[in-house]
TrEMBL record:
It is an enzyme of class 5 (isomerase). Keywords: Glycolysis, Isomerase. This is phosphoglycerate mutase (2,3-diphosphoglycerate-dependent). It comes from Tetrahymena thermophila (strain SB210). Substrate binds at residues 13-20, 26-27, 65, 92-95, 103, 119-120, 188-189. InterPro entries: His_Pase_superF_clade-1 (IPR013078), His_PPase_superfam (IPR029033), Phosphogly_mut1 (IPR005952). CDD domains: HP_PGM_like. The active site is at H14 (tele-phosphohistidine intermediate), E92 (proton donor/acceptor). Its EC number is 5.4.2.11. Belongs to the phosphoglycerate mutase family. BPG-dependent PGAM subfamily. The record marks H187 as: Transition state stabilizer. Pfam families: His_Phos_1. One of its GO terms (biological process) is glycolytic process. It catalyses: (2R)-2-phosphoglycerate = (2R)-3-phosphoglycerate.
Amino acid sequence: MSSESKYKVVFVRHGQSEWNLKNIFTGWHDIPLSEQGHQEATLAGQILKQKGYSFDLAITSVLQRSIQTFNHIAEELQIHHIPIIKSWRLNERHYGSLQGLNKSETAALHGEAQVKIWRRSYDVRPPEMSIDHPDYPGKDSRYKHIPPSSLPKGECLKDTVERVLPFWTDTICKAIIEGQKVIVSAHGNSLRAIVKYLDKMTDEQIMELDIPTGVPLVYELDENLLPVKHYYLISQEELEKKMQEVKNQGKAQQN
Ligand SMILES: O=C(O)[C@@H](CO)OP(=O)(O)O
């Protein structure tokens, strides 16, 4: 089995959004970056520039926080000209009727253990969103090409894996094999879906993985697109701090 690195792909979770800041379940709700999120995305671009990265193709979800994040990176790297593929398949995990609720208040009401199950279990779905909910994707013209039966009303990570992986294989892997340098600007849980697949993580292992906002994550892949190694482009200390911040969002009391 080859373990030589042949390709690199860079993932980045969008910078902090307005709803990350307010600690609200977000999912497919289309909320912009916060001031801190804009700064994190700019910093991600500066780090990539400083380390000599450049890209031929950008891939984002159809949610503005991922697109804004790439735009900051494009600004820093001066790569506004490269093609961007935007796909709903990279959207955040759909959080069902939890979307719009504060995570700490939900933990105070239902318990931290239940919130951890909703946030991080592999195959337990959050409560379903009704089709009357203002955020129901069937009301949004950007999803009109998707058959209603494929539109989520609330996903567990397993559901997200099932919609992300065909896109990973058919579009992202294809571009990587063609020799394109690809950056993927997406979301905490759509990236957890890809990472679980790449690193063959168990359903238990993935529960403990949190992806911080606005930090480039490099995967080196062999000729068969199997991972050789991966690393974040910030110090271990900063990384642990940022990962812990994500974990803490499910606590009834912050701090
Ligand atoms: O609210 C969400 O959509 C996600 C990402 O921000 O949160 P969590 O980390 O709780 O899965």
